[in-house]
Each structure stands twice: as C-alpha cells, then as structure tokens.
Amino acid sequence: MHRIKDHLTDLLLVGTVLLAAFALTFLGFRLFYRAAYPVKYTGAVTAQARAYDLDPHLVYAVIRTESGFRPEATSSMDARGLMQLTPDTFHWVRYRLGETGAADPALLYDPEENIRYGTATLSLLLQRFCSPREALAAYHAGWGSVAGWLEDSRYSEDGQSLDDIPFGDTNAYVDKVLRTAEIYRRLYP
After folding, report:
1. Quick check: is 182 catalytic?
2. With contact defined as beta carbons under 8 Å apart, do 62 and 140 qualify?
3. Which of 66, 99, 134, 151 is catalytic?
4. pLDDT tens digit sequence for 80-94
5. 145 Cβ partners below 8 Å, 6+ apart?
6. Which range is least confidently modeled, 8-17, 43-52, 109-118?
7. Which helix (H) or strand (E) segment is 6 a member of?
8. What is the pLDDT of residue 82?
9. Are residues 61 and 132 in the same domain?
10. Total-model pTM
C-alpha cells in the first residue's frame, strides 16, 4: 500500500512538472509573439478603424509591415510615418476627404495623423477594389497600377480580382500583410 502511494505521488509530481513546463512554454511562446507583433497606438488605431469600418488587425499589420511601428520612418520613395504615406498620397486622400487648404506633409510623422490618413487611404482603396488583396496591392503599387492589372487578362480573368500580381515586391508585400493580419487576429482576438 505504501509503495502504491509513493508511486501515485511520483506520478502526480511528474504530471505537475510536465503541466507547468507546458504552461510556461505556451506562455513564453505567446509572450515572444506578442513582443514581435505589438499593438501600439491602440487609441488611434481603434478609433480610425472604427471610423472607416476597417479590421484593426489589418491596420496593425500594415503599420508593422510598413514601418515596424517607427513614427519617424522615411522610405527611399519619401513615404513617411507609421503607415508610410507619400506626400502625393497625403494630398490625394485629403482631397478625397474634402479637406481644403494647404497642409504640411510633415504631419505624416505624427502617429495619430498618419494613422488617420493611412486608414482613410486603405478604406478608399477597399471601396474601390472590394478585396483586401487588391486594396493592399494598390496601397503598395498605386491605384493606377492595380486598375491596369485588373483590365489585363494576363493578371485578372474577371476584372475584379487579381490572379497574378506582376510586381514581385508588391506580391510579397500583399502576402506579408495578409499573413501578419492573421497573426494579429490569433494573438489579439
């Protein structure tokens, strides 16, 4: 009887250690991924995603992919801030939003303004192209490029969705943002 009790105690101890190890591994894995896929500027992202009826996970994915959450980021194409908008895109989206008067593109380095204009741009592209894949391709390569690809039977059979994105960097960008959005959905349901 004493031997059975010792054996059960040993089994309970091993089970407890294994359960603790599993829990710590899972927690560590989750903490690692949350550090690699952060949520920053939550007030602005949440407010603007709601205002433009966007999935906030997609907005976070664009920010992470475009700038790595660095508001001071500037690309070789002069794209600026968190969501990497060029001055031309900034003026275009302001016009589409009915905003008049001059505005300094330096505003794009302000996180809240950048998120506001970036989500507005993304929303306008989603309205035009109806699918995140095509909208993201337009966000990366330009509205005109995607419109042209949709009219070309080599890239689109139905004129609505892209079967092939002819720019390799744009195709990689779209895939990366969509994968990243899915990771955000799993980490932050």
Report:
1. no
2. no
3. 66
4. 999 999 999 999 999
5. 137, 138, 167, 170
6. 8-17
7. helix 2-36
8. 98
9. yes
10. 0.85
Output Rg (C-alpha) for the chain, integer angstroms: 23
Digit-coded pLDDT (tens) for 123-182: 999 999 989 999 999 999 999 999 999 999 999 999 999 999 999 999 999 999 999 999
Whole-angstrom Cα distance, residue 2 to residue 9?
Answer: 11
Q: In this model, does residue 67 exceed pLDDT 80? A: yes
Q: Are residues 12 and 100 in the same domain?
A: no
Q: How far apart are CA 106 and CA 109, in angstroms?
A: 6
- Is residue 23 located within the same domain as residue 69? no
Distance of alpha carbon 152 from alpha carbon 61, whole angstroms:
29
Whole-number pLDDT of residue 24: 41
Q: Which residue has the tokens 């560590």?
A: 28
Do 53 and 117 sit in the same domain of this protein? yes
165 φ/ψ sector (left φ>0, alpha ψ -120 to 50, else beta): beta
* CATH number of the structural domain spanning residue 44: 1.10.530.10
Same structural domain, 10 and 81: no
Whole-angstrom distance, CA of residue 49 vs CA of residue 41: 12
CB 84 within 8 A of CB 73: yes
- 152 is written with which tokens? 């070309």
